[in-house]
Amino acid sequence: MDWYHGVFLWSIRTFFQSREVNVKLTKEEVQHVAELAKLQLSDAELEEYAGQLGQILTYAQQIQSVDTSTVPPTPQVLPLSNVLAEDASKDSLSNDQAVDNAPDADDGYFRVIAVFDDSGA
Questions:
Q1: Helix/strand/coil percent split, the chain, to 5
Q2: pLDDT tens profile 62-77
Q3: What is the spatial distance between Cα 67 and Cα 13, in angstroms, rounded to a whole number?
């Protein structure tokens, strides 16, 4: 690790230690979020999740308060490389081979159960 990154990590650690921001959520707020997610939670779960969601929001608030104006944009963190194989032409299956393992075939076609009735609905 070079000195720049060491100073950066030290300043981040110092920044977070100097800030005590705790987000507290009520059971009603957690219940509202649970209803939006179509979840049915017990009172014990509401209490537990209120604390956990509060910790998550506290951490997100701390991250948002970090000054990143001097950090250059990083669209990719890993080097880009093409992992696709070269296109190669090869013979395809014959019609008989394709329907050979079908559970139900007729005259070279796959037979399937009708999904829609004749009314078009």
A1: 45, 5, 55
A2: 888 888 888 888 888 8
A3: 13
pLDDT in tens, 15-32: 555 455 678 888 999 999
Cα separation, 45 vs 40, whole angstroms: 9
Neighbour count for residue 75 (Cβ, 10 Å):
5
C-alpha distances out from residue 105 to 102, 110, 115, Å: 6, 5, 17
Neighbours of 51 (CB within 10 A): 12
Please give the model's pTM, rounded to 2 decimal places: 0.43
Length of the chain: 121
